[in-house]
Write a structure and sequence with these properties.
Two copies of one chain form a homodimer.
Chain A: H1 12-30, H2 36-46, H3 54-63, H4 70-82, E1 86-89, E2 94-97, E3 109-114, E4 120-124, H5 131-137, E5 140-151, H6 153-156
Parallel strand pairs in A: 3-5
Antiparallel strand pairs in A: 1-2, 3-4
Chain A binds a DNA duplex (30 and 30 nucleotides) through residues 33, 35, 37-38, 53-55, 67-72, 74-75, 93.
Chain lengths: 161, 161
DNA sequence: TAGCACTCTGTTATAACGTAACGGCCACGC
DNA sequence: GCGTGGCCGTTACGTTATAACAGAGTGCTA
């Protein structure tokens, strides 16, 4: 398993710029267009390791004059998730930037969600969960989400956020 | 791993009555009240192995004169999920009856969701997924959801629903 | 250079999902 | 009787998401 980044102290500035650079490189390679709007949306998601609701993102974008109608936010988020630069957290109806921009596209993702501070760490699920069960049932898994809620180290030790 | 019921042909009548009996027994034991409304909501969920939206359930209830306002459906669903008689499928914003009413309360659930016919099979996740990752991060998992989307055996063989 | 195709963005309107809050009803126990 | 607590009915609203169409920019090509 890989390290689930997000809770441990880290060089967040580097974390952001690495992700942005990876996104730019991936877009160049794939012919996708990381427009100013999309890039800014990704930057906003990258600012913290918390999940951001579509309307929260929209509010941030609107404050910068980048669009203030829901479809603007949803289109940007669709682009980012399709390209693998962000993930949707189903339990929160919210979105986080991908912590593993270098990983294979469409990698199986697993999330650790702190119910106290709201931060989300992403682990790479390198083996499909449910593999045995699915096979038993003759089910073909195309895409799996794993979302765990609990307490991160800081919040366990009473540090709050 | 246990068998993920729901896709394979089975005696659905028995499936329904077993689940209802288990719910009644559990309520009796816990002092919870399986009122007519709640019981009927559970029956409706049990009618198929598909996930039902809260508003779909409400429509069904309303057709029987059992309440036609959103809170009615949500309260029944909250009761059923709290008691472990039903589960919420986050990816679908929808609810399914529990296929393992005999299992430990609050068991870790994992779902196989057919994207073609919409049926949902439930497997018991007897070991916490993410255990290793969570431990690496010092994260305490309280509750995890696993939801896989794909194709069930029938839909793979072109049978549709 | 005019016309076309394509993609991205702007906007309106509405659908779908979910909940807060209050009041009434009923059963139960004292 | 009378309070208590749980359930249900209702109003009103908040949050999340999408369909559909209009406009702007770019690049191709004939």
């Amino acid at each position: 398993m890989s390290d689930p980044t997000g809770f441990a102290p880290h060089d967040h500035h580097a974390c952001v710029s690495t992700a942005l650079a990876a996104a730019e490189a991936a877009c160049a390679e794939r012919g996708a267009r990381l427009t100013p709007l999309r890039r800014r949306a990704l930057e906003i998601l990258l600012e913290s390791h918390k999940a951001l609701g579509a309307y929260d993102l929209l509010e941030r974008l609107a404050a910068e004059g980048l669009g203030d109608k829901p479809p603007v936010a949803y289109r940007a988020l669709n682009f980012l998730t399709e390209q693998g630069f962000a993930h949707r957290i189903e339990r929160l109806n919210a979105y986080v930037a991908c912590s593993h921009p270098d990983a294979a596209e469409g990698h199986g993702a697993a999330f650790l969600i702190c119910r106290d501070c709201g931060r989300v760490a992403e682990a790479l699920a390198d083996k499909a969960p449910l593999g045995a069960d699915a096979q038993d049932a003759g089910f073909t898994v195309e895409d799996a989400v794993v979302e765990a809620r609990g307490l991160c180290p800081q919040c366990q030790s009473g540090a709050g956020a």
